Amino acid sequence: MKLVASLILLAAPAAAMAASAPGTATINHGTQLPDKVIVGQNFWTCAGSACSGPGDDRRVAVERACRDLAKRIGAVEAITVGSTVLDETQLADCNKAARTKS
């Protein structure tokens, strides 16, 4: 039991560290972006054709962030969180969730 508790305590800082990388996304579909958008559990700010905010830099989390952006504001051209960059195939998969222009 003490071993389990110790492992949980050791894992907690690693999980917290993963959620603090800076992220940026390019959304260039010619429509006005909102000033703020919720990505995961974080607020990202948008200006021009880009949004930025904190995020988790694990690949699966960046893919999830991309889908969040695509659902809320439209197709994502590029996204980077920390050192994780989605490639063309991952972006195409992400953009399947993209909101269509009204």
TrEMBL record:
Residues 1-18 form the signal peptide. The keyword Signal applies. It holds the Pfam family DUF8200. Keywords: Signal. InterPro entries: CC_3452-like, DUF8200. This is Uncharacterized protein.
